[in-house]
Task: inverse folding
């Protein structure tokens, strides 16, 4: 049996990053479980590794989110519209079981639906996910019981996605596994995880980010293509990655990733495009034709100024703002004093897409949670943003309760909902501003302050610049550019020696 000194040496890595030594909020939060770990605790020698802890916490929090939906599971989804809003437990999943033909055995994209929708309005891979869940749902019995079971089956599948997201986030930055707790403990993540099927795309993109951090460009591209086949937004990360690879001169790696993304997307979509073109195009036509909807900046403007914004106007304005933001992100990438980290730009491009969209469904916050944990792993800023998102989550349901409760007027009136939209927009803008500040002032970036360059950047990590604008220049890889020693916010005079301690 190895001695205690040998065991301690085997897990001691001076370069490891411990949140409770660099983040005062993490240090204060650790007091709930006894405070920061001391020198006699050897987590590295036990089964309880950081990644396993993060995964279990994510599963546990997901289960709590399922419990939060219990009032709707019992009756809210089936008896009366307003109760599912007053209890803030609404979910699309049980409603679409019948509404999109799964209860009747209709095949997505191939079979027409009754009513105005005609075909399923989701991307192909999400439709496959929904169809598989319907296969696992008993086909006999009362419709209410089958809808409940359909939600439970989907929740089980989405729980796997949630665990994948947390684990991939924890592993993307090798020296910062505990940052995965930002995902696992995110309140908005817990509350919105089972509203819709977004976690499938989020999980695929989180796995793609992990693959890129390990230098596996082809695997990254394939996963991005699959994520795009489940939801459009993951394709956006290829834009800032192009500019980063331009600055670093990594054209071959980018080409491999891009071709992998296009190829995997085509593999999923081509069969449906060929055999059921009308059903396949529904997602894209629906996205183009839908009007200004809940949570968007366009809805806020239209109600604030009492003007009507048509779908065509919103599409044009959204496109102009998105192009302008892309140009700005490209300029930021090429002129920053140090090449921005990939996770920072991935977060910014997805956040801009959310801010300029015609609709903001509450579950869209899921798109940003793992990217935010990688872009700005700082508990204070993360929780400020999460508080704003939780406020919006409650605001939209209370507003819908107000509009569906008749003369009782239970819930939040229109002016209050306008405030909730503003809080969501300002919270997202705040986190974007902090990330941009970190790019312009890399000494404020907690990842780089700990001595890393771009741990999520794969081949970009520590690579010299090949093209820059202005006086931008890249310092040596993992240089001693750390601006000062890490502050131990709660060691009480002890010096932890295990590399994975909080």
Result:
């Amino acid at each position: 049996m190895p001695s205690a000194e040998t065991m301690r040496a085997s897990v001691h890595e001076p370069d490891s990053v411990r949140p409770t030594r660099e983040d005062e909020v993490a240090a204060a939060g650790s007091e709930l479980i006894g405070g920061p770990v001391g020198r006699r605790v050897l987590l590295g020698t036990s089964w309880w590794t950081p990644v396993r802890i993060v995964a279990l916490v994510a599963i546990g929090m997901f289960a709590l989110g399922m419990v939060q939906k219990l009032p709707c599971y019992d009756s809210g989804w089936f008896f009366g519209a307003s109760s599912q809003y007053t209890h803030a437990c609404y979910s699309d999943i049980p409603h679409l079981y019948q509404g999109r033909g799964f209860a009747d055995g209709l095949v997505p994209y191939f079979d027409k639906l009754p009513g105005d929708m005609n075909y399923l309005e989701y991307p192909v891979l999400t439709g496959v996910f929904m169809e598989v869940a319907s296969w696992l749902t008993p086909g006999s019995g009362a419709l209410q019981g089958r809808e409940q079971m359909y939600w439970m089956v989907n929740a089980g599948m989405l729980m796997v996605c949630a665990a994948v997201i947390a684990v991939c986030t924890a592993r993307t930055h090798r020296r910062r596994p505990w940052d995965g707790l930002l995902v696992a403990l995110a309140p908005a993540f817990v509350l919105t995880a089972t509203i819709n099927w977004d976690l499938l795309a989020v999980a695929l993109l989180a796995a793609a980010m992990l693959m890129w951090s390990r230098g596996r460009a082809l695997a990254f591209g394939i996963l991005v293509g699959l994520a795009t086949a489940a939801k459009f937004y993951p394709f956006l990360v290829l834009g800032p990655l192009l500019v980063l690879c331009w600055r670093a001169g990594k054209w071959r790696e980018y080409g491999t990733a891009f071709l992998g993304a296009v190829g995997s997307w085509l593999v999923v979509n081509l069969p449906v495009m060929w055999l059921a073109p009308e059903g396949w195009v529904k997602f894209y036509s629906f996205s183009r034709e839908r009007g200004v909807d809940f949570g968007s900046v366009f809805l806020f403007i239209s109600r604030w100024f009492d003007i009507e914004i048509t779908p065509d106007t919103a599409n044009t304005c959204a496109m102009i703002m998105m192009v302008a933001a892309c140009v700005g992100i490209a300029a930021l990438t090429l002129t920053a004093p140090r090449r921005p980290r990939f996770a920072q730009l991935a977060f910014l491009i997805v956040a801009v897409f959310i801010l300029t969209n015609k609709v903001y469904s509450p579950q869209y916050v899921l798109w940003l949670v793992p990217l935010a944990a990688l872009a700005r792993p700082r508990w204070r800023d993360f929780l400020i943003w999460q508080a704003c998102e939780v406020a919006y989550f409650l605001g939209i349901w209370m507003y819908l309760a107000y509009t569906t409760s008749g003369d009782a007027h239970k819930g939040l009136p229109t002016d209050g909902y306008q405030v909730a939209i503003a809080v969501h927009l300002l919270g997202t803008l705040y986190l974007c501003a902090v990330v941009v500040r970190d790019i312009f002032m890399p000494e404020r970036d907690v990842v780089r302050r700990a001595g890393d360059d771009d741990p999520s950047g794969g081949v970009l990590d520590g690579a010299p610049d090949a093209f820059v604008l202005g006086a931008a220049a890249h310092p040596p890889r993992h240089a001693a550019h750390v601006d000062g020693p890490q502050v131990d916010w709660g060691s009480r005079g002890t010096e932890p020696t295990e590399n994975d301690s909080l």
